[in-house]
Write a structure and sequence with these properties.
single chain, about 160 residues, alpha+beta, 3-stranded antiparallel β-sheet, 3 helices, about 25% helix, elongated
């Protein structure tokens, strides 16, 4: 069964079409299926891996990505990001005594970060870049005078 690797431009167009159509896709597998369907419409021999689709979406800034993790017992190490393959940098903080403390590592390209224990991505959510497409409008809060939670603060 022959296959062809689509050019980055064609892959980017397919990713953009899927994100505009759906707005939000909950899993990487579903996102890949939708993108591959768009690619197959353009050329039946086109094929791309889930990882290539995810990395293209990140590097080309075609979609926002949210990552759910599980934490392992292994110590975090500096190296490549497991999400996009970019380098990671150490996160430092300074104590009150002026000592530097290493908190973990953060990717320079995507939202991945890890603390002292290594975090492994388990689920990706792909979101549209347009604001307000996915998230509903915030609910209006009651004024403090109308809200019962603040009743103890009312003064006579």
């Amino acid at each position: 069964m022959p296959y062809r690797i689509p050019p980055v431009k064609v892959l980017s167009q397919s990713i953009t079409e899927v994100i505009k159509e759906k707005g939000m896709v909950i899993s990487q597998r579903r996102f890949s299926e939708l993108v591959l369907k768009k690619l197959k419409d353009k050329d039946p021999e086109f094929s791309a891996s889930e990882e290539r689709i995810r990395r293209t979406a990140i590097f080309r800034n075609l979609a926002r990505i949210q990552i759910n993790y599980r934490e392992t017992k292994d110590e975090a190490r500096n190296g490549k990001c497991p999400v996009c393959g970019s380098e990671t940098k150490e996160i430092h903080n300074q104590t009150l005594l002026g000592e530097d403390v290493k908190l973990g590592f953060k990717c320079v390209r995507c939202p991945y970060w890890t603390g002292p224990n290594r975090r492994v991505p388990v689920r990706y959510t792909f979101l549209s870049l347009q604001e307000g497409v996915i998230e509903p409008a915030p609910k209006k809060r009651k004024r403090a005078e109308e809200d019962d939670r603040f009743s103890q603060w009312k003064f006579a």
